[in-house]
Specification:
This is polynucleotide adenylyltransferase. By secondary structure, the protein is of the alpha/beta class. The chain has 9 helices and 7 strands; from the N terminus they run αααβαβαβββααααββ. α6 packs parallel to α8 and α7 crosses α9.
């Protein structure tokens, strides 16, 4: 029978609230064992190496911002406290990265540090002289401008966003709409990765079940050659949103229950109706401050139909 799934206009309530049986728990344990045997979890040594890369990159961007602040002759106190945030996103932030996974990271800098000169020219020059960095590529003209490199053998894609603040607090919250005020589209797109990952984790009922299910679905998609935005298939964020929606529909289910339901749900989905984790908000809804940014909504923009959508990405490109 048809499942009571959501349309673009409304969000459906959960389909099934019953929790797992002992047999479901056993099946989940077997599923997790298979994922580990398939090499989908990195070793403790690989985890430590990845954390070292992120820590050392944080140190580099901190020194970079302090150097720029000093050169521009801002007050000494300002240079002393100047810093940038290095925030991983993508599979690492979602907690589903595996052996050899790339690291996607966002550098968040203060208002006076720009992307074109300061990020690509100055920081790019610093990275070019860093012994640990190889295969450095600067791609300022990309849809989402990026610095690509290997840092001690780990592939890193580095984005930049300058926020409208004179200093970047270490506890900066990127979830609210106010952080997007006054930003250009390239900056909004750069912030998208962190915002979407955090919003997905906030919206799923149970993060552990979501992660195990997503690992399984990603493994299935990669084995069949259908895991790629560049090739016209669903990419990492898209698969995460699809799995998150199933987790919302079965909030108490174990991964061994969620995996078959994932395929059942989307084999019956009324495409091209979009998959949404939350109702779409518009500037004219009477909520928070208007931003004047494009809103993803197939009701108002038919070209948006058929994409997956997370609330954090509703103000620019579909996920």
């Amino acid at each position: 029978s048809a499942l009571p799934i959501s349309s673009p206009q409304t969000m459906a309530s959960p389909i099934f609230l019953v929790g797992p049986t002992p047999a479901d728990h056993e099946s989940t344990a077997q599923l997790e064992k298979h994922l580990r045997e398939a090499g989908l979890h990195e070793s403790a040594e690989e985890t430590a190496a990845r954390e070292d890369v992120l820590r050392d990159l944080q140190g580099i961007v901190d020194r970079w911002v302090k150097q720029l602040t000093t050169q521009r002759e801002y007050p000494d106190g300002m240079a002393e406290h100047a810093t940038a945030l290095l925030l991983p996103f993508g599979s690492y932030r979602l907690g589903v990265h595996g052996r050899g996974s790339d690291v996607d990271a966002l550098v968040v800098g203060p208002a006076y540090v720009d992307r074109h000169h300061d990020f690509f020219d100055v920081l790019g020059g610093v990275l070019a002289e860093t012994e640990a960095v190889t295969e450095l590529q600067l791609v300022p003209g990309a849809y989402v401008p990026v610095i690509k490199m290997r840092f001690r053998g780990v592939q890193v894609d580095l984005l930049y966003a300058s926020v409208c603040l004179p200093a970047v607090p270490m506890d900066l919250d990127l979830r609210g709409r106010s952080v997007l005020c006054g930003l250009d589209m390239a900056t909004v797109r750069s912030l998208n990765g962190v915002r979407v990952a955090d919003e997905i984790l906030r919206l799923v009922p149970e993060a552990g079940a979501f992660r195990t299910t997503l690992r399984c679905v990603k493994h299935w998609a990669k084995a069949r050659g259908i895991y790629s935005n560049a090739m016209g298939f669903v990419g990492g964020v898209g698969w995460a949103i699809l799995v998150a929606r199933v987790c919302q529909l079965y909030p108490n289910a174990a991964p061994s229950m969620l995996v078959p339901r994932f395929f059942r749900i989307f084999s019956q989905w009324k495409w091209p109706s979009p998959v949404m984790l939350k109702d779409i908000e518009h500037d004219d809804d009477g909520g928070e401050m208007p931003l004047g940014l494009p809103v993803w909504d197939p009701r108002r923009n038919p070209r948006a139909t058929g994409a997956t959508s997370c609330p954090s990405s509703r103000r620019h490109t579909p996920a």
